[in-house]
Design goal:
The protein has 116 residues and is of the alpha+beta class. 63% of the residues lie in helices and 19% in strands. It has two domains: 35 residues; 72 residues, GMP Synthetase, Chain A, domain 3 (2-Layer Sandwich), CATH 3.30.300. The protein has four helices and three strands. The chain has a three-stranded mixed β-sheet. The radius of gyration is 22 Å and the shape is globular. The termini are far apart.
């Protein structure tokens, strides 16, 4: 009985092995392409999540309409909001996040008249 269990587990791991190895290799290659260390990637993800959390706490509209991209502490904000004040608030909240070095504001304002 014990031998059968070991054989079954071995077969399962052999089947999963190549995919786990290739996934790990892709992650290492992707990290090398970005030329960022794991720590830098972690910091960027933390900054992005912090900003999105601030947006959600302030107004769900900011959370859903603004995309946040972070690269080595530089934040790019894109999207469309209905009011200029929301655009300014989005930038202000992004600057409040620890680790932010620069904020690039590419947020458009849609007044509802077809002009962005």
């Amino acid at each position: 009985m014990f031998k059968r269990l070991i054989i079954l587990i071995s077969v399962l791991f052999i089947g999963c092995g190549p995919s786990l190895i290739s996934t790990g290799a892709k992650t290492v290659i992707k990290e090398n392409e970005d030329e960022k260390t794991f720590s830098e990637s972690w910091d960027d993800a933390t900054i992005k999540l912090g900003i999105k959390e601030k947006y959600f706490s302030y107004d769900a509209t900011l959370f859903t309409r603004i995309d946040v991209e972070v690269e080595l502490g530089k934040v790019l904000l894109t999207g469309v909001v209905p009011y200029g004040d929301m655009r300014l608030e989005a930038v202000r909240l992004a600057w409040k996040q620890d680790g932010v070095n620069e904020v690039l504001n590419e947020i458009s304002i849609d007044t509802g008249y077809g002009l962005a």
